[in-house]
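Appendix B. Extra example for self-study. Work through it before the problem class; the solution is given directly after the inputs so you can check yourself.
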Amino acid sequence: MILKVENLVKKYGSLEAVKGISFEIDRGEVFSIVGPNGAGKTTTIKCITGLRNPTSGNIVLNGAYSYLPEEKRLYKSYTIEKMLEISGYVSKYFDKKRAYEFIKRFKLPLDEKVANLSHGMMTQLYLAIVFSEDVDLYILDEPTWGLDPVIRNEVLEIIREMAMNGKSFLITTHILPEVEKITDKVAIMKDGSFVEMDYLDELKEKYVAVVVEVNKRVEGGYLYKTTSQEKVYIVEKERAKGDYQPVDFETIFQALVKGEKK
Amino acid sequence: MLVLWFPIDYNSHVPVYKQIKEKIKEMIVKGHLKEGQFVPSIRVLAKDIGVNVNTVARAYRELATEGVIKPIKGEGYVVASLNTDEFFKEKLQTLREILSNLKEQGISKKEVETILKEVFGGDICDP
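Solution. Structure tokens for the complete assembly:
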């Protein structure tokens, strides 16, 4: 076990941003937290990285971590090369050779100033620095922010490769297809709580869609959609009575996030 | 050349590990993978088709439980034996569902028979 979070609560005044979540990440595991904006994903990460003090709860971290923040800001007046050089000074885990390889792989210009980089290039540079740290856990807040589809796939590939070599990942994102491509376990976060947490494949087998007449409802189901004459519920397979249909992860996510459990 | 690559449909409701299991079985049925032959290692397959190691591991574990492949200590997995009866039964069930659906949509028996002829050749009434 690399990271263990137990009953994490974070309040900002009267606002409860994180309401007692628990999870564990094993060695070589990719764990994703998905959820709408404001669900508490970034606050959770900030508590783990020590940028916020948890109101209560327990966080156990076995090993070193590297962190890609949601706001990808680096020193504007520095060139990429200088950025890599100082990263070598500030972090003992930083492998400069590896960083230069990533810069090459991402085709970033070494002599360009950070100020002149696009959103996507900035994310790539930041990722190159984070991935070049030889640590146990990589905490990535929106790691594909601003990346085009080709680079995004490249980044997902790198994460998969590193996980294969025993590195662990904690990722937050709201881009579902990328979650499906790399994640072992996923937590769906809403209003500060995990409404679901399981292996991705398990979730697809756990939930099904049930369609009922518009004046009926499905006990224990999440309302996904109301059409002119029907209501579509996403419900656990064993609770589904009568006909049901399999559903993809996107639909499950949508239903669990917006649908009231009835 | 032995082609082992296959695409994974992430938008599908079918879990990824199940998609992998099906593909491996298909390759065995088609003779692309033969009895006693090593299937790609978990890491290699994971890298080739771009999925998580744990997902491939799960698919292999279940295939091993079903007796389709068997682990060779320290070396990986080899193809054991696939119960083709079971496999064909599932495939035929899928065909049955598709046919019922087509029938409901008004496709005639004759039209289906034409396709059967095209695929299998000859006269379908012949034994």
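Self-check: The beta strands of chain B are 69-72, 76-79. If your reasoning did not lead you there, revisit section 3.
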